[in-house]
Design goal:
By secondary structure, this protein is of the alpha/beta class. It has a single domain, classed as Alpha-Beta Barrel (TIM Barrel), CATH 3.20.20. It has a 3-stranded parallel sheet, with helices on one face. It has a two-stranded antiparallel ribbon with strand order 3-4. α2 links the parallel β1 and β2. It is globular, with a radius of gyration of 16 Å. The N and C termini lie far apart (about 35 Å).
């Protein structure tokens, strides 16, 4: 955000891509997009009203305790859990809604393979 503000480059000439962490469900995906926009604005770029590309980072989910402490005993072996079909669908529904209302211009997936689709 601050780099964009201090550069003098118009917002429409910068492409902002960010990610939400995995298949986290509808509400958490909406919150993720909001958090990303708030961070961009907090660091000085009040003109950022949308994200150009929002990606779902991976087709699984992280154990809640592991989000904050990857060294926790329950996170040593398997911090990642497979996401259920409903979580995947709810996450994508939120992405589509964010695009429809103009908060993001494009949506996509990152680190998915054909078996995840």
């Amino acid at each position: 955000g601050e780099a964009l503000r201090t550069s003098g480059i118009p917002r429409e000439e910068v492409f902002i891509t960010t990610k939400c962490p995995g298949a986290i469900g509808y509400e958490a995906t909406i919150e993720c997009a909001d958090d990303n926009l708030q961070m961009l604005r907090q660091f000085g770029s009040k003109g950022v009203q949308y994200i150009d590309l929002l990606l779902v980072h991976f087709p699984s989910t992280i154990k809640p305790a592991c989000r904050f402490n990857r060294e926790a005993p329950e996170c040593k072996d398997t911090p990642i859990l497979p996401a259920g079909k409903q979580a995947l669908q709810d996450t994508w529904r939120a992405m589509e809604e964010l695009k429809t209302i103009g908060v993001v211009k494009a949506i996509g997936l990152s680190d998915y393979n054909i078996t995840n689709l």
